Amino acid sequence: MKILYLVIPCYNEEEVLPITKEALKKKMEDLIENKLISKESKVMFINDGSKDKTWELIEKYNDEDKLFTGVKLSRNKGHQKALLAGLMTAKKYADIVISMDADLQDDINVIDKMLEENNKGNEIVYGVRSSRKKDSWFKKTTAEGFYKLMKIMGVEVVFNHADCRLMSKKVLEELEKFNEVNLFLRGIVPLIGFNSSIVTYERDERKAGTSKYPLKKMLSFAWDGITSFSVKPLKMITALGFLTVFISIIMIIYTLVVKILGSTVDGWAFIMVSIWFIGGVQLISIGLIGEYIGKIYNETKHRPRYIIEKELK
Ligand code: UDP
Ligand code: MG
């Protein structure tokens, strides 16, 4: 039987943690009783530098019941880094790890479905939100817009999949080789490959407490996602440069016509043409430099260039 670790990042979650703990305790005990997972399975809470009683609660749960364990980060590092810290710690003890949020917005019954998919040989199982009936209009629009934008920018992400996913030890070992500092796990995991599948669930409301992702954090998360996965914004400068040069040609013709017709002041044609043409040339040049920066940027990531799934003996 496989050892399962649930990895739960927590930032100022004292309000919801008692509810989450009870729900997960029941779930894990059921799974253990039904022999779906090993007795050594655990729930691991990652305290991401909370300013409230979150860590005290985690310590208390661990005292009461060894089903619960915890990791404390030295300070607030943000959801993605807290998650990575948890995954890398859990990897040492677990055969499979499922990550989910502390607020029970991800339906915990998805764990059963994920285990089933894993038993079919899937090393990664993505939890996908089937609909967002309970999300506010604003959250739904911004979140779905984000997934669409990522696609336009050429970043491969699973639509409506956040960070609720199952990964096997093998996958986590490969994930460890991605050395990036600007962590965007949703983009990295699909790059790892291996057999994977999707399970869907209904995203619920937060059980207690308030969102720890205000608009500012959401925007910076989206920005990180694009700029650490795509050099398209740099390439767009080159495109803009060519467009400007093209417009400058039209401007040259236009100014010549106006000049010939004679209704201009002296020097006007010269300035008009120069502005457009030089503007275009400058943008192309910046774009060209951008192309090289893009290459440097990709090189400095030192991402693994390939991942071997199996070796025949
Ligand atoms: N979180 C974290 N560090 C942060 C912000 C959030 O570990 O700096 C955790 C938080 O405790 C929760 C998860 O990330 O378990 C998702 O946050 P939240 O539910 O507030 O986001 P939302 O669902 O509103 O997008
Ligand atoms: Mg939430």
Oligomer: single chain
Rg (CA only): 26 Å
The end-to-end span amounts to: 26 Å
* Largest sheet, spatial ordering of strands: 3-2-1-4-6-5-7
| Range of helix content | 40-55%
Shape category: elongated
Main sheet characteristics: 7 strands, mixed
Ligands, ions, cofactors: uridine-5'-diphosphate, magnesium ion
Beta-strand residue fraction: 5-15%
H/E topology pattern = EHEHEHEHEHEHHEHHH
Unreliably modeled segments:
none
Mean pLDDT: 88
Give the number of helices.
10
Record the SSE blueprint:
Elements: E1 4-10, H1 17-33, E2 42-47, H2 54-64, E3 68-72, H3 79-90, E4 96-99, H4 110-119, E5 124-129, H5 137-152, E6 161-168, H6 169-175, H7 185-192, E7 196-201, H8 215-227, H9 232-261, H10 268-300
Parallel strand pairs: 1-2, 1-4, 2-3, 5-7
Antiparallel strand pairs: 4-6, 5-6
Helix pairs in contact: 9-10
Sum this structure up briefly:
The protein has 313 residues and is α/β, with parallel strands linked by helices. It has 10 helices and 7 strands. Strands 3-2-1-4-6-5-7 form a 7-stranded mixed beta sheet, sandwiched between helices.
